[in-house]
Amino acid sequence: MSNVNQNPERLLAIPVKKSDPVDLYRPLRKFVATKYSESDAQKVESVIETLDKCRRDMVERGDLSLPMQRDCLIHYFKCLCMVEPLFTAISSDADADPITFVWYDAFFSEHENGVSSQRNSIQLEKAAVIFNLGAICSQIGASCDRTTSLGRHLAMDAFNAAANFFYKLWTVFAKDVSATLDLSLLLAKTLHRLCSAQASELNLQQRLHHNNTNDDASSVSFESVSQNYRAVSVMILRNLPATEHILAFDRTWITHLSQKLTFFQVEALQRKSSILPESQQPLVISLVSPLDDDAESVTEKLVSAACNYNCGDPWTRELEHQPRIPFIDLFLSEYSPFKIMDGGKLVAYPWDMPPPYPTNLAFLSSSSSSHILAFPLKKCEPLDLYDSLRNYFVLKYSESVAKKVEGLLQMLNKLRGEMQRDDIPLPVRRDCLIRYFKCLCMIQPLFPMTSSPNPPIFVWYNAFNPQEVSSQHNIYLEMASVLFNLGALCTHIALSSDTTTNQGHRIAIDALNDASYWFLLLNSVTMSASATVDLSKNCSDMLREIISAEIADLNCLPHSRYDRSSFPGYPVSSLYRKAYDLLTVGTLAENLVQSSIPQYLESKINSHHVNTAPTDVSEEFLLRYCKDKSLLPEECQPPCLDLLSEAGPVMIKDGNLVANLRGSDVAMEEMSLPETTVTLP
């Protein structure tokens, strides 16, 4: 790269807001006991306790690492979403004990307007938490070792996450808050643009590194980065309060931004003048980056593939308007820190307590519902992934590179063995499949392993016709089969739920919603897997139509919490008819004629009546909890940052991928527990 001006290596990290301590437990529990009942207070006591602990740790503990601070803030935000109805009620109750939140300006707390103190203002609290999430992510990004490919990738994703948090602050949370200048719409927008600019710079650096030559980087990319920095500079310099605010915090920010802008402007102009004619430019098209021969970037490529699981990969784009429903995790997942127990009691485990968490399986029963059909699971042949993958790393790279990813390979192999077991509870098996799928996403760039003398061959049988088999060295066959089994397993969970009770009825509907999600994802992955008919798009479409009809059917039960008027469209009988029509066409008719599906659909073509049921305080908490899925979308929580946390099956330690047994649902007796201290790459 030609350098008329040196590019400043420094990246700007946003400071966090400080707050005064406040007791949340006593006034909130007292209010619930007074306005609802003591039994209601006991139902939600665990949530209020965890909320109070999260805030105390967030404000008072100075020993938390940056990833731990991020975990704490996300946990606290989810708790805030759950208890928001209480703050709304307290604000209009003169007899309730007030809760006063005091927050200081992150940039200039000594300013005359540097403190904001408001009573019962959960809007201020949520805005401040979102600000700090953006600030912490920016600090994670700035602290990563950007001399390594993995460090640059983590830094880029951290700044992207920070940009998305500040975008949420700008467009949602700061709109109705009268507070310090750091929470103003202008500064929130400015910080969003600043973090976006730094993320785009890191993305450009990563591209330059992978291309191994500066000539492969387009002048357009440099111009785009310069435009981002120009926008930030203009937003600060054209607003006097913002300028004074930034200068009071750190005078070098303005100079730094000017140097960044100048560097990328000059570089873009120089590259533009040396561009080849269009007819001489090479055509490069790549949807997924395969692993190359650069051993230093191997770990980064695997981590990058993990992010593709739900962050912009071509096969997940159609899921943007269908986020996963979190209710089912509240009931059954060992990895959700929030749980619904007997009698509707809510339990919130502390943010710093690693999974797995105790789960009450009493909601599942041996009785079955006539409203639900459980789809059969696909079967597969056993396969030792560890040896074949590790040998491939040794052959293609080196023994030292193989050791870097050994923890991931051990976990991958163990999860594959566990997912085939029929003797473990359905929810545990579901957790295992989800984690195995995420690990598969990490190794996907390895395939096809053309240089391996012993590549893994995946063998899967048709779920509806076991005589039909598919045997391929194709990672997409494995991924598609796992997604099919996730969807099918959720229908088994729905079938085993006691739909005569409110909780069982809820689990059944939420499990079916989850099944529909996995079959929708299967639609995209199966495009790259030529396999048995059960993995075809026609089949998954038909199965999703059956699920849609069953959900509508369950909503017609007398104790349903929904009203039929909120479900416009076809009557239930028409939904079953639509699924039946898909079933009786083409290859599906030939393959599924001997299954129980045709007879089931024929018996279900009818309609039902609907009533509604009241809600209580725990119901309100649950609905608010699910709201955080839209308030904190996946862009704010990139999977690779979770690899710095202690809650997943694999974590990054000293640039290596290691099995995180504290965050695994599988006991691996032969492996020792790794250290839990995380060092940012």
Automatic annotation (TrEMBL):
Domain BRO1: 10-549
One of the protein's GO biological processes: protein transport to vacuole involved in ubiquitin-dependent protein catabolic process via the multivesicular body sorting pathway
InterPro entries per UniProt: BRO1_dom (IPR004328), BRO1_sf (IPR038499)
Pfam families, per database record: BRO1
Superkingdom of origin organism: Eukaryota
GO cellular-component term (any): endosome
Protein name: BRO1 domain-containing protein
